[in-house]
Fold this protein.
Amino acid sequence: MSEVFADRRGRLRDRCAAAGTAAVLVSRPANVRYLAGAAPPGAVLLLGPGAEDALLCPRAPTGDPVEGHLDDGLRTAVLPAGGVDPAVAAAERARAGGAGSLAVEEHHLTVARHRALAAAAPALTVTDLGTAVEQQRVVKDEDEIAALRIAAEITDQALGELLESILVGRTERHLALELERRLVDHGADGPAFPTCVAAGPNSGLPGHRPSDRRVEEGDFLSVSLGASYRGYRCEIGRTFVIGTSPADWQIELYDLVFAAQRAGREALVPGAAYREVDRAARQILDGAGYGENLAPRTGHGVGLEIGEDPQLAPAAMGKLDACVPVTVEPGVHLPGRGGVRIDDTLVVRQEADGGPELLTITTKELLAL
Amino acid sequence: MSEVFADRRGRLRDRCAAAGTAAVLVSRPANVRYLAGAAPPGAVLLLGPGAEDALLCPRAPTGDPVEGHLDDGLRTAVLPAGGVDPAVAAAERARAGGAGSLAVEEHHLTVARHRALAAAAPALTVTDLGTAVEQQRVVKDEDEIAALRIAAEITDQALGELLESILVGRTERHLALELERRLVDHGADGPAFPTCVAAGPNSGLPGHRPSDRRVEEGDFLSVSLGASYRGYRCEIGRTFVIGTSPADWQIELYDLVFAAQRAGREALVPGAAYREVDRAARQILDGAGYGENLAPRTGHGVGLEIGEDPQLAPAAMGKLDACVPVTVEPGVHLPGRGGVRIDDTLVVRQEADGGPELLTITTKELLAL
C-alpha cells in the first residue's frame, strides 16, 4: 500500500514536468489525501523538483510533534505555532530549493492565500495546476474500489436493518440519525454525506433536509445514505411505500423511475459519453412528461468525495473509462404529493468482465413496509 | 425580526460607502446568512448601489423556483440551470446597474472564481472587502444571544442525560453519537461541531476524534459538544472521572485547570484585551509547569460559526466589548495518561449588568461517575 501514494505523486509530477511546471502545490484536502495517504486539517503537499516532497501541516492544537515521514517515505513537517499558512511555507521551500515555477490549485486557493504565497516567494512564477489531480482521481485502482465495496456493504447493512424496524410515527430526523448510527456501528468512518430521509410530500426531493415530519400510512418514503470507509464514499437511494399496498399512482411512478434508472445503469460501458448515460435515464422521464423539473444530473462519480467527476449531465464532456465508480440516481418529485428516487453506486467495467459492477445491492423492488 | 437583516445590510453599506466602495459582494456562507437571514448552498449576496440588493442562488437541484423576496423585502433570484457561478452573475448585475467598483471577500473567493468574475465585468474595479462582515458579527444583538442561550440549554440537557446513563464499557464513538442524537431530540438543528468524547489517555486532547476506545474504571473522560440552534452555535466541555473516586493526580490536575478556567472567566470584562484574557488562564497552567504543550488559544468567539473572532490567544489584537459571546476553555493533556479540559460559553457583560453571563450551566465540580 505504501508505494501507491508515491506512484500517484510520480504520475502527477511526470504530467506537470511535461507541461513545463517545476514544483507543484496541492491544497485541496481530497487531493492531498489522494497523493499523500493522509490529509491533516489544513495540510498542503509540496512536490519537487527543487524542494524535497513534503506534507506541510499547521501546528497541531496541542503542539504534539508530527515531524517525520509517512509510511512511504514522504517527509512531513509540522509548522511552528503562530499561524504560518502551510501554502506560504511551501512556496518559500520551493523557492529555497531552486524551483522556478510553482503550480497551485487556483480553484481551491483563495485570492488572499494566493497573494500571500506569491509575495513570500516573488522570484517564483506561480501557475495554475487546474484540476490535474481531480482528473487523475477519476479512474480508481483496485484498492480504491475495494474500499468503496466495503463502504457499500456497510451502507446496505444499515439500510437493511432500518427496513426491519417500525417506521410509522417516527420523524425523518430520527430515522436519519438512526441510519447514521448504524453506519458507524458497522464500521464506517462516518456518513459519506448528510443522510436524507424524506416522507410523504418530501419524498423524492434530492438533498431534502430531514424534518420533524412523521412517517404516515400511505407515504412514499425515500432515503439516501452512504458510508465513508477509509475516506471512500458511496451512495444508495431507495424509495418505499408505507402501509399495506401502494396506490396506483405510486406504482406507476415507481415503475417509471425504475425503468429510467435501469436504462442509466445499462448505459454504463467503457467509451460511453457521460451525456449519453444521462440521456438514457433522462429521456424515459422526459417521455413520460416529467422533463421540466428534473435534477441537472442523473449521476456522478464517487471516491474520496461524493459528487466528484464525472458528472452524468446533459452538457458534460467526456467518456467513461473502466474502473470509474459512479452513481445512477434519476428521480421524479411531484410537488405536494411526493416522489421516487432510486440510486445505486456502480463501477464501470468491460463487458468481458461482466459489465457494470453493482456495489449497492439492496433490492429495488417496490417494498411496502 | 425582518428588519434586523435590512439593518445589518445598511450598516455594512454605510461602512463600505465611507471606504469609497460602490457595490459589495458577500460570498462566505456565514456572512451571507448574517446579512440575508438565509444562505442556500452556494448563494451570494449583492448589495448596491447600482444593482438592487439581491440574494443570488444557484439553481435548486429540483428546479423548484425560489424567485421572489425574503421577509424583509430582499430580492432573491435563482439562476438558470447550466452552472452559472452566482458570484459571476452578481458582478454582471453590479456592472449593469452602473456600479464602478465591487468589493469582494478575497479571503473566501478562490483565485479561479475571482478571475471569472473580473472577466465577466471588466469595467468594474474589483476590490477587497476584507473581513468587514466578520468584524460586524463580533458584537451580537439580543436576538442572537437569545438563540445562543437556547443552544446552550439544549447542550446542557443533552450532557445531563448522558451523565445519568451507564458509561463504563461504551466506546467514545457511541457516546459521541448518542450526545448528537440527544442534541437533536431537544431541538437542535444539529451539532455545532463534531462532538468530541475522549477517554483515558485521550482525555483532554482538543479535537480528538472519537475512537473505539471503551470507557474504563479510573479513566478521565472529557466531552466537548454543542448545539446549533437557528444557526447559532455554542460549546461546552467537561471532564469527569469514571469510578468511585479520583486518583490524587487527577484531583490535582482538575483543580489546576479549573482555577485556570475560572481566571479566564473572571477576566471577561468589556475593555479587556483578548490577550489578557488568554494570559489570565494560561499563566496558571504555565506556572504549574504545563506551559509547553498548551493549545494556541484558550478561547474564541461563537455565533454563526464555532471559532469565529475574537481569538483569545497570546498574539491576538483587540479588546472585548459587551455582548460578545466567547468560550473559555483551557486544558492540559499529559501524553499517555490523559488530561482535563473545561469549557464554557459566556457572554461578556458590563459589571453593572452582573458581569459575564454564563450560558452553559452544567456543574464544573469534578464528578465521579
Q: What stands out?
A: The CA atoms of residues 274 and 312 of chain A lie 5 Å apart. Chain A touches chain B through 36 residues (CB under 8 Å). The longest strand of chain A covers residues 306-312. The mean pLDDT of chain A is 92.
